[in-house]
Amino acid sequence: MKDNISIRPKGQGRYPKPFDYRPRPGGFYWERMLYQSPAYCSLTATGHMVLTALLDARIFNNVKINGKKERILVNGDSLTLPYKKLMDVYFMNMAGITRGIDDVLAKGLAKLVHQGGGGKHDQSVFALAEDYLRWTPGVVFYKRPKVIRRGFQDPANQRHRKNSRSQNDRLIRIAK
User: 130, 127, 151, 111: which is closest to 34 by C-alpha?
Assistant: First the structure.
C-alpha cells in the first residue's frame, strides 16, 4: 500500500532553490583567535549566521611575493550583505537578519561603513573589525542607526511640506 507522500521532481525539495547564489568553489579561513574569543562564543544563532555570511563575502587574491604564494584580502573594508542572499541561502527572516547584524556590530566583530536603505540597490557596507578582542559582557562597540531620515522625513524639509499643505488648503477654500 502506497503512503500519501507526494514525489516531487528533482531539485524541488522542502526549501526553495536559492536564486542566483551558487556556492563558489573552496571555503573561507577562520582565525583561531576569532572562534575562541568570548565575543564569538556569546553570539546568538542569527549572529553566527550573519558573521559566517560576512566572512564568506571576503575575496582573496593569490599573489606571488619573493617566490611565496600569499593571499591578499581585496574587499576587507567593503563587504556587502544582501538581505535576499541571507534569506535564500541561510534561510533567515528579516527580523533575524536585523538582530544578527546588531549582535555582530555590538560585539565588535564588524563595523558599519555605509548605512544602506536609501533607495534601490543602496546596500549596507560592512568592514571586519578586531574590537572583539577587547569585548567584555555589557560592552557595545558599534550601533546601527535606527532611523535614517531622507526626503520629507528630514525636519529641515518639514517647512516646505507645511507650506505645500497650506497652499493646497487655500486652493480648496478658493474653489468652494
Answer: 130
Beta strands in the chain, from DSSP E residues, in sequence order: 60-65, 68-73, 79-80, 110-114, 125-128
DSSP 4: S
Number of domains in the chain: 2
- CA-CA distance, 38 to 43, in Å (whole number)? 9
Q: Are residues 123 and 81 in contact, defined by beta-carbon separation less than 8 angstroms?
A: yes
CB burial string 72-89: b at 16+ within 10 A, e below: eeeeeeebebbbebbbbb
pTM given for the model: 0.68
Cell 556590530 sits on residue: 105
Q: Which residues of the chain have pLDDT under 50?
A: 1-2, 4-8, 18
Q: Which residues of 135-147 are buried (b: 16+ CB within 10 A; e: fewer)?
A: beeeeebbeeeee
Asked if residue 52 and residue 116 are part of one domain, the reply reads yes
In a domain, 39, yes or no: yes
What is the domain range of residue 165? Answer: 149-176
Is 74 in the same domain as 37? yes
Inside any domain, residue 175: yes
